[in-house]
Amino acid sequence: MSWLLVGAMALCLIPWLTSLFVEGGGRSRWHLEDSREAELTVDGQGAFREATVHATVSAVKRSRAPGMLRAMAYSCWFLGQMVIPGFLVWCVGLLMLDRLQNAPAVLAMLASFFPGAGCAWLLWRAGSSLVRGERGRADEATRQAAKVIVTYNALVIVAAVAWFSAHRREEYLLGCVAYAVVSIVHVLAVRWAFLAHRDEYPV
Fold it and tell me: How many CB atoms lie within 10 A of CB 130?
């Protein structure tokens, strides 16, 4: 039980530290002064004791990213860090490479580490862009992440289902399919969160 607790804390530590670093560097960009027209009553002197004038006043629109964007960013960092245990599994697979000659599906999974690492980087980048307060970069990063991750995981699903149909004994491929589906749903949710809040970005 203690090891599970330590593992859970370790998985949450990296995203938490990332949120402190990224939001600390990007939060100031959310201090947008939104100009608006308002009626002000002012006290005058002499014959003009009181008057109502129209003036432009400034009001702080938002001091940090909306809660939905911060939650989506944290989820990006959480899933993006899974490249670390993936790298450890890849290293173990290399050490056992001579025993895996008759397991082409496992070899294919080891080879998929590199495009998977690329997807993790895109996800990490998208999460960081959500909370930095730069609409153009957030738009580009989330769109690119959605395009690449959806395409890659769709190919993984097709390949895994095709292989499982021919080799029923390799049930672990169903786990790959489940993770790929989660990845697709998640990155689409990230893109949707940006589109839902795009008008709240300072620039």
Answer: 30
